[in-house]
Write a structure and sequence with these properties.
This protein is α/β, with parallel strands linked by helices and 254 residues long. It folds into two domains: 125 residues, Nucleotidyltransferase, domain 5 (2-Layer Sandwich); 108 residues, Nucleotidyltransferase, domain 5 (2-Layer Sandwich), CATH 3.30.420. The protein is 35% helix and 24% strand. The strands form three sheets. Strands 1, 2, 3, 4, 5 and 8 form a six-stranded mixed beta sheet that branches. Strands 11-10-9-12-13 form a five-stranded mixed beta sheet. Helix 1 packs across helix 2 and helix 3 packs across helix 9. Bound molecules: beta-D-glucopyranose. Beta-D-glucopyranose binds next to helix 3. The site of beta-D-glucopyranose has 16 residues, from helix 3.
Length: 254
């Protein structure tokens, strides 16, 4: 096994995706392999699918995993879009037991953010940079001079006069449910960005997930003072960032 190759995995509500990543340049050196997330996505069921994914690559080395929840010291502390039975589970230990590999876990948006900051739209960007992933939920990652402040969960902010958290109005799911065009969606998204501006005064926000691909269709709706860029890295970012994170952790452990 080469030391700069790590298996990166992105666990999502509908798919568990992974590939071998060269952490020196952020390239996925294999095809991306995707398995359906089992339903219900209980810890045991997901661990079994994870084992299958690792076996597909015949992988024995370290693994980085992006997971859609607050992840503190390997443990899931929330479950907004995943099975509630994950709360309190040590994800890293569980996936390590099922695969026999060293597993390092971080929040999925944090993972996508790490990929953007190291290899994508955020490369070389200093100051306060945020990544927002627009998917089933809204994920966030916050960086100060390139250093990650993990588990920010900004999709769970409340907007003025709204009864539910922001992601209920601006996620990919919310757009589909209300059958909104990207331009209509962009108006609400802009309100959310203005709220973030008020709270954080960011220098740059990078948009990932579905909101990245369609950026041109709603960018004219955005009236914020800070720069906004699409991630451009699309659906591999979670796996790439998770692999890079695992590699950093391995370096620290020596
Ligand atoms: C979760 C976050 C996650 C985001 C994107 C939100 O509902 O609370 O932890 O990063 O969805 O998957």
């Amino acid at each position: 096994m080469k030391e700069n190759i790590i298996l990166g995995v992105d666990i999502g509500g509908t798919g568990i995706k992974g590939g071998l990543i060269n952490v020196e340049n952020g390239e996925m050196i294999t095809e991306r392999h995707r398995l359906d997330t089992p339903q219900p996505a209980t810890p045991e069921a997901v661990a079994a699918t994870f084992k299958e994914l690792v076996a597909f690559f015949n992988w024995k080395g370290p693994i980085g995993v992006g997971f859609p929840a607050i992840v503190s010291h390997g443990v899931a502390l929330s479950a907004a879009n995943i099975d509630p039975s994950w709360i309190g589970v040590n994800i890293a230990d569980l996936l390590c037991k099922s695969s026999g590999c060293h597993v390092y876990v971080l929040n999925d948006a944090d993972a996508a953010g790490v990929a953007s900051m190291r290899f994508g739209a955020g490369k070389g960007e200093e100051g306060l940079v945020m990544m927002l992933t627009v998917g089933t939920g809204i994920g966030s990652a916050l960086f100060i001079d390139g250093k990650l402040v993990p588990n920010t969960e900004l999709g769970h902010l409340y907007l003025k006069n709204k009864k539910e958290v922001a992601e209920k109005y601006i996620s990919k799911m919310a757009r589909a449910e209300k059958d909104l065009s990207w331009a209509q969606w962009g108006k609400t998204f802009n309100k959310y960005l203005l709220h973030l501006q008020r709270l954080f005064s960011p220098d740059l926000i990078i948009i990932g997930g579905g909101g990245s691909k369609s950026f041109d269709e709603y960018k004219d709706q955005l009236t914020v003072d800070f720069r906004v860029k699409p991630a451009g890295y699309l659906n591999k970012a979670g796996a790439v960032g998770a692999a890079y994170y695992a590699w950093e952790q391995e370096q620290q452990l020596g």
